[in-house]
């Protein structure tokens, strides 16, 4: 029975079942069970039948926010959406238009290489006067932001003004564009610029303070600037890996996560000069591990823990949550130790110990994973140590040998892409990742494995540190629990 026929048989059978006798109902249930397998359930042998990206392109968007963590009184959750999808706020949505796959992969490659290069140490450049008033900014403080894909909407100020910001575990200092920024010093955004003068809870950070010195010690300080009243204000500055820059006044404000849940005296950057490829979004929310991040600033309340669930496609929503579930609510998670990063406190590192394809463990020497893997919300495809990637590619291509393999495309990194033209369903092997401590996750099929019909992994040319990209993380609640020194994964969370 084909998957298409199975769909039809299930519909007919369920209509009959309402009038059926018990024996007939049992038969119907057996048909229903078979259909679930044929339409995407797991098969014995580690393969799953799934619709192709072409056949599922017309699916309706499901943008309602439903999250099991939303009802937890000890956690604060907000909806999360893909910035190029129909569930994103209209102010940042591109109306369905998004960069080409080749362009997204180019941006992704730049971000991945920048993160990995940070192990070689920070460098400092001086921006020209036309860029940022001659401010010297460490280039390694932020990964490229033009590859970031997921946004949340938060309230800044009193009264709260909604601002839609990118989330980034590869950055620490949060910022939004602020008045009196003009068209020559800031990029266009659809939402009104945040106006500090309209908020009763806004305060700038004076230059000669401990907070300003801490900012400088963390590498984000950019000296002092004079206000219109003659006061000396603390100035921040960031240059990202793609050479985008943001400079402005280091400030504090009330940050509202949702009605009734607000963070007072939240430290952030009030951006007055942004240069680069920024587009539509209002700012950035830093979720790294350094003291300047939202996670660190709320550690006293939420224990240095946060989680997110990245939705399987552009047409659905996920969530971002501060806090960890109680010990009696972690049964659905698998945990692996969280390690410190030699690149600094920003990044979250875990140890990958094995990979399986179609239920079979690949023969990869443990030494291939010795440098660890950074989990990153902003990197798209997973960059594996070269030895591990070679084994994964060989096994995946063998399991997918029934489908035509496209020739290599010099404009993109992905080298295992398929031609599914004319097919409504394909059979995809499962891919599982095993981490230190034995935690194993089965990646979502197909959304956690394929990116536009390509295997969403690349080799990084050596057996050094790798990066787990956001495609692999789709549908999991990924829990970063710094307070307990662990990272958790809960499948099927969004």
UniProtKB/TrEMBL annotation:
The active site is at residues 168, 376. The keyword Transmembrane applies. It comes from Urochloa decumbens. GO terms for biological process: proteolysis. The chain crosses the membrane at residues 12-37. Keywords: Aspartyl protease, Disulfide bond, Hydrolase, Membrane, Protease, Signal, Transmembrane, Transmembrane helix. Residues 150-490 form the Peptidase A1 domain. It holds the Pfam family TAXi_C. One of its GO terms (molecular function) is aspartic-type endopeptidase activity. The lineage of its organism: Eukaryota, Viridiplantae, Streptophyta, Embryophyta, Tracheophyta. Belongs to the peptidase A1 family. It comes from the Eukaryota. This is Peptidase A1 domain-containing protein.
């Amino acid at each position: 029975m084909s998957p298409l026929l199975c769909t039809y048989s299930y519909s007919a059978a369920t209509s009959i079942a309402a009038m059926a006798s018990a024996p007939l109902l049992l038969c119907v249930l057996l048909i229903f069970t078979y259909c679930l397998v044929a339409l995407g359930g797991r098969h014995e042998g580690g393969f799953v039948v799934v619709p192709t990206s072409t056949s599922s392109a017309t699916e309706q968007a499901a943008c309602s926010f439903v999250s099991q963590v939303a009802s937890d009184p000890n956690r604060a959750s907000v909806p999360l959406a893909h910035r190029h999808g129909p569930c994103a706020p209209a102010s940042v949505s591109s109306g369905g238009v998004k960069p080409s796959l080749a362009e997204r992969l180019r941006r992704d490659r730049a971000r991945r290489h920048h993160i990995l290069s940070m192990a070689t140490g920070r460098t400092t450049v001086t921006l020209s006067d036309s860029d940022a008033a001659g401010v010297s900014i460490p280039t390694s403080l932020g990964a490229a932001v033009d590859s970031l894909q997921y946004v949340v909407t938060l309230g800044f100020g009193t009264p709260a003004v909604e601002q839609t910001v990118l989330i980034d575990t590869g950055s620490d200092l949060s910022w939004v564009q602020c008045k009196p920024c003009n068209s020559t010093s800031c990029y266009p955004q659809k939402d009104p610029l945040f106006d500090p003068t309209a908020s009763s809870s806004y305060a700038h950070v004076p230059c000669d303070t401990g907070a300003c010195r801490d900012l400088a010690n963390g590498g984000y300080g950019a000296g002092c600037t004079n206000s219109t009243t003659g006061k000396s204000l603390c100035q921040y500055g960031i240059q990202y890996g793609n050479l985008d820059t943001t400079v402005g006044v280091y400030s504090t404000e009330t940050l509202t996560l949702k009605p009734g849940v607000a963070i007072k005296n939240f430290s952030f950057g009030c951006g007055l000069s942004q240069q680069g490829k920024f587009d539509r979004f209002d700012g950035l929310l830093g979720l790294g591990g350094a003291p300047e991040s939202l996670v660190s600033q709320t550690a006293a309340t939420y224990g240095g823990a946060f989680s997110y669930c990245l939705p399987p496609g552009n047409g659905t929503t996920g969530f971002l949550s501060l806090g960890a579930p109680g010990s009696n609510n972690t049964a659905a998670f698998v945990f692996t130790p969280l390690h410190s990063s030699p690149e600094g406190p920003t990044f979250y590192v875990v140890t990958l110990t094995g990979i399986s394809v179609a239920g079979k463990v690949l023969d990869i020497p443990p030494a291939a994973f010795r440098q660890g893997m950074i989990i990153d919300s902003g990197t798209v495809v997973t960059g594996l140590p070269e030895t591990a990637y070679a084994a994964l590619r060989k096994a995946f291509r063998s399991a997918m040998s029934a489908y035509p393999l496209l020739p290599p495309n010099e404009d993109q990194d992905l080298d295992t892409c398929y031609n599914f033209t004319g097919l409504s369903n394909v059979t995809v092997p499962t891919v599982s990742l095993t981490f230190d401590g034995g935690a194993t996750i089965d990646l979502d099929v197909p959304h956690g494995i394929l990116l536009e019909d390509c295997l969403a992994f690349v080799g990084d040319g050596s057996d050094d540190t790798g990066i787990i990209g956001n495609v692999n993380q789709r549908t999991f609640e990924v829990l970063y629990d710094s307070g307990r020194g662990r990272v958790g994964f809960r499948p099927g969370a969004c």
